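Q: Predict the bound structure with zinc ion.
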Amino acid sequence: MGLPPTRLAEALIGSARRARAATTMTATTLSGARVIATHRGNLDEMNLTGSCFCGVVSYALSGKPLLSAYCHCTNCQRLTGCPFVHTIHFPASAFTWTHAARLDAFVIPDRPWKTRFRCPTCGACVASANSKAGKYSVGRAARGALEAWDAVRPTAHIFYGTRMLDVPDALGKWEGYEGASARLE
Ligand SMILES: [Zn+2]
Ligand SMILES: [Zn+2]
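A: Predicted complex:
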């Protein structure tokens, strides 16, 4: 991301401290979750698979994402201990769990429509289901085939008003969702 390593480390440490103070959840991280893109023909036929850090929990996605962005909202910050996350939204119909193990789930009390699923073994948050919007979100795309990466490449920084650090890249910076809120930069 081109961030100065020392600034990023300071932000990560500060964020982790705040997260520990703000929640009683078991310590977890998103850093192990990964999305692997495979490419079969054109983007409409693209399938994505993802898993937690340890591989016990996995899922598959079909088609193109509705949104792919770096999210700087305070929920993402507090839940992950990271200054921002890469989130990718798909219609719920595009998402399928592909593992047999049980899932741990967490719901923020004032946002009962959104369930965040975690691996019970490694603790990585692998996906969230939003029943109000009819969407699933996954995170942490790893670069797969270059063409497939283009389909899940972040297009914006969202909820940038609550950022913990500036990100001097060329992507648009938005107060809320891309194209549906004030553009900050
Ligand atoms: Zn796991
Ligand atoms: Zn967020």
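A: The mean pLDDT is 78.
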